[in-house]
Design brief:
- This is Complement C1q-like protein 2.
- Its main location: secreted.
- Residues 168-306 form the C1q domain.
- Residues 87-177 form a coiled coil.
- It is a single chain.
- By secondary structure, the chain is α+β, with helices and mostly antiparallel strands.
- Among the domains are: 2-66, no CATH class; 174-304, Jelly Rolls (Sandwich).
- Helix content is 52%, strand content 25%.
- It has 4 helices and 13 strands.
- The strands form 3 sheets. Strands 3, 5, 6, 8, 9 and 11 form a 6-stranded antiparallel sheet that branches. A 5-stranded antiparallel sheet has the order 4-1-13-7-10, with no helix packed on it.
- The radius of gyration is 71 Å and the shape is rod-shaped.
- The N and C termini lie far apart (150 Å).
Length: 306
């Protein structure tokens, strides 16, 4: 039982020494004083007899099987010193890690700033994309409208071309014809003027000339060129006249006592739609024709007029 009294005393002294060593260390004198102090606390003031008896008992029982406390404390002191070295190393490591953490925290803060900037940039770009999308949608609408307009205009152009082609077809007016379709012989003289019918048609674009009646009818208003040629033999005169709506315009005339007679003439006339032009042989005049087509009547549209 008395041995058990020494064990708590040693444990308490050990804890105190360790604490002091952690805080700054103890020497052996301080350790001895601490032990004496602990003895005082464990054994309050008693009579001299009681103290002497307790001291004798404690010494007897502590010496029974407990090692030298000074040796143990020296070992503890060495262990505590070693632990303090480890603690300093750990403290330095912790300090280093704290510095690294501060650097990482600063880096994270900086990266958060970059992320905020990037987020703002992305938001701005998204807004621009929305605006561009709206613009593209609007432009697509405009393109559809323009496409519809172009399609309509193409239709109008086709109609205008067809109308223009039709008008151009109407403007393609030209004819040329010879007097006799076949054979040869004299025509005339007659006591009155007659309308010559040029039956041998060389060209009749627009079909404005009628080879049965010998009359050209203007299909549209414009300037027309007409020309005639006459051929005959003496002693008769050879005279033919271009007539517009019954009025004489120009003549082709030739006379001599003998041999062949040959003459021609032409004129530009302004005709309205429906005006007629023909060639008449004067009374008492005679002309001659053959397969050589000496006598001809020709005309064509120079240009239309409004």
């Amino acid at each position: 039982m008395k041995a058990l009294v020494c064990i708590p005393l040693l444990l308490e002294t050990f804890v105190f020494v360790v604490q002091q060593q952690v805080d700054g260390g103890l020497n052996e004198n301080e350790i001895s004083r601490q032990i004496s102090s602990e003895d005082g606390r464990q054994n309050p003031p008693q009579t001299d007899t009681l103290r002497a008896e307790a001291s004798t008992d404690r010494q007897q029982y502590c010496d029974l099987g407990i090692p030298d406390i000074h040796a143990a404390l020296r070992e503890l002191t060495a262990s505590v010193t070693e632990q303090k070295g480890h603690i300093r190393e750990l403290t330095a490591t912790v300090t280093e890690e704290k510095e690294k953490n501060r650097e990482l925290t600063a880096t994270v803060t900086e990266q958060k700033g970059h992320i905020r900037e990037l987020t703002a940039t992305v938001t701005e770009e998204k807004e621009k994309n929305r605006e561009l999308t709206a613009t593209v949608t609007e432009q697509n609408g405009n393109i559809r409208e323009l496409t519809a307009t172009v399609t309509e205009q193409n239709g109008n152009i086709r109609e205008l071309r067809e109308e223009l082609n039709k008008k151009n077809e109407d403007r393609e007016i030209a004819f040329s014809a010879g007097l006799m379709e076949s054979g040869s012989g004299h025509i005339g003289p007659f006591t009155t003027e007659i309308t010559l019918t040029y039956k041998k048609v060389f060209t009749n674009i627009g079909n404005a000339y009628n080879p049965i009646t010998g009359v050209f009818t203007a299909p549209l208003k414009g300037a027309y060129m007409f020309r005639i040629s006459v051929y005959g033999y003496a002693p008769y005169e050879a005279t033919a006249v271009i007539v517009k709506n019954g009025e004489h315009v120009v003549i082709a005339h030739e006379y001599q006592d003998q041999h062949q007679l040959n003459s021609s003439n032409g004129v530009v006339l302004i005709l309205e739609v429906g005006d007629v032009v023909c060639v008449r042989l004067w009374s008492n005049r005679r002309i001659y024709d053959s397969h050589n087509n000496h006598n001809t009547f020709s005309g064509f549209l120079l240009f239309p007029l409004r």
